[in-house]
Structure to design on (513 residues):
């Protein structure tokens, strides 16, 4: 019986012990799927020796994970939820890190005529009037919340067979839109790194309202004493330092910059973010 | 065809990241299978041999739990291991250990029910002999497991297959962390969400090849065992 217990203990504990310092970062699929973390985290680790373990889920779920104390830091993109997270005492020291933007994507032949729209509300109204298929994330993610806000701005409440809430991540939504020639809203990062575009293309982009800012928040150690706030703060400091910001702006997919750093207000963000990332 | 070329290329490349992922997949699923089997096989045999009130009910519950969705198991283990949960102080969430725990729970009823099915007919054959010799319970259980060992090994393989193939539980309790908790199935899910469908399918083929190798190995050992037995007899 004793050997049995020992054996099970050994099986269960085989790789828990690790000398390296590590923190858990609850974050969004958009940053992970685009490959940003694969680019910046090794640089951070080389400098500090800290491993950042990224759990990539929707913004809603990421915040839930952080609220439960299952992460040391949070990097998400929905400002109202971020502010609520901080004001409820779960998080401290929210900082701007970077932004990219949302784009409206649809089939190349554009049956709803979104290309002709002069602003986002017009673009969405065109889809709603034509009742062409529109895929909504429906998963309480940052992108989903933003999409609902944009519908509200256009004073529309989409419903009906043409509006499909699929309750899945950005990639799954893009896959479904690609397979059904549907419209949808995506962050530019996930779109640019997406490998299964089929007949889809960007139909509307560039309005300031489509900006998608990311915030980095530390989990409050007063709420969850076990979090490694020192390492988490080092990560936040590095990400917002000139080095980290440079690493973010150096990240390219298909030779296009995906994220525009904006942590340092004294720096002109346009200088960091050339027109290839945010196309007008 | 291109997919098969990609798959073969992936296996032959010996890519370090892929090897880490394969190794973790095997480690998590084999550990879960071993732990589950250690308890489920004796329990399954005991349910066939011992007569006690509630035995039928336990069997029904056990076979019903074979239909347990991995996501539900993942969620339950997540809530248990979360820092805000009852076992939060252990800090096990988002570790391979959490993944082993979830898969163990997932496949325990499978191994138990299939073991029960495997030893049930043997018990009917042996019961008079056992009674005549007044065999103690522990010995009955051991004898019957040993004599049904080839069928029991199929139960173990079924459990292993389920563990290796499931994605719902490990993605919730593991978090699909690169280099730490990323296994084959969560990689496939990730690549699918990136729209890299070819790569995702190629990884699926790699997973099948691994499952095939493990099964082949087990069957070879079983065959060797059977031959040895015939020689001895």
């Amino acid at each position: 019986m004793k050997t049995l217990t020992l054996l099970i203990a050994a099986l269960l504990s085989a790789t828990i012990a690790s000398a390296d310092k590590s923190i858990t970062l609850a974050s969004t699929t958009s940053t992970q799927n685009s490959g940003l973390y694969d680019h910046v985290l090794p640089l951070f680790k080389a400098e500090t020796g800290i491993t950042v373990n990224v759990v990539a889920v929707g913004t809603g779920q990421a915040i839930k994970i952080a609220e439960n104390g299952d992460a040391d830091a949070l990097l998400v993109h929905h400002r109202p939820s971020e502010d609520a997270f901080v004001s409820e005492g779960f998080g401290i020291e929210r900082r701007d890190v970077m932004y990219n933007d949302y784009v409206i994507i649809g089939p190349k032949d554009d049956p709803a005529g979104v290309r002709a729209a002069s602003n986002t509300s017009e673009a969405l109204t065109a889809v709603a009037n034509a009742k062409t298929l529109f895929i909504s994330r429906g998963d309480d993610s940052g992108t989903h919340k933003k999409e609902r806000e944009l519908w509200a701005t256009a004073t529309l409440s989409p419903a009906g067979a043409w509006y499909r809430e699929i309750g899945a991540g950005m990639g799954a939504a893009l896959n479904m839109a690609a397979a059904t020639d549907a419209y949808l809203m995506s962050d530019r990062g996930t779109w640019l790194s997406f490998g299964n575009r089929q007949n889809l293309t960007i139909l509307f982009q560039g309005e300031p309202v489509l900006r998608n800012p990311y915030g980095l928040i530390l989990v409050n150690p007063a709420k969850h004493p076990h979090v490694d706030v020192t390492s988490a703060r080092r990560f936040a400091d590095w990400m917002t330092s000139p080095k980290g910001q440079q690493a973010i702006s150096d990240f390219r997919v298909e030779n296009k910059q995906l994220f525009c750093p904006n942590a340092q207000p004294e720096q002109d963000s346009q200088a960091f973010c050339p027109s290839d990332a945010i196309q007008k | 065809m291109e997919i098969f070329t990609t798959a073969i290329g992936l296996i032959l490349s010996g890519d370090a990241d892929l090897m880490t992922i394969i190794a973790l997949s095997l480690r998590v699923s084999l550990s879960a299978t071993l732990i589950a089997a250690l308890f489920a096989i004796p329990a399954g045999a005991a349910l066939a041999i011992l007569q006690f009130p509630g035995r039928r009910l336990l069997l029904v519950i056990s076979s019903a739990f074979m239909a347990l969705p991995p996501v539900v198991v993942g969620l339950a283990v997540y809530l248990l291991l979360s820092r805000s949960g009852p076992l939060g102080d252990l800090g096990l969430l988002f570790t391979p250990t959490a993944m082993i725990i979830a898969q163990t729970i997932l496949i325990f009823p499978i191994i138990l029910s299939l073991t029960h099915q495997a030893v049930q007919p043997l018990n009917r054959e042996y019961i008079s002999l056992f009674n005549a010799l007044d065999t103690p319970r522990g010995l009955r259980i051991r004898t019957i497991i040993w004599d049904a060992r080839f069928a029991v090994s199929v139960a173990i393989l079924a459990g292993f297959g389920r563990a290796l193939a499931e994605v719902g539980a490990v993605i919730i309790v593991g978090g699909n962390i690169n280099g730490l908790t990323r296994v084959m199935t969560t990689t496939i899910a990730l690549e699918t969400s990136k729209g890299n469908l070819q790569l995702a399918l190629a990884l699926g083929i790699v997973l099948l090849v691994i499952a095939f190798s493990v099964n082949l190995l087990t069957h070879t050992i079983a065959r060797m065992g059977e031959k040895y037995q015939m020689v001895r007899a």
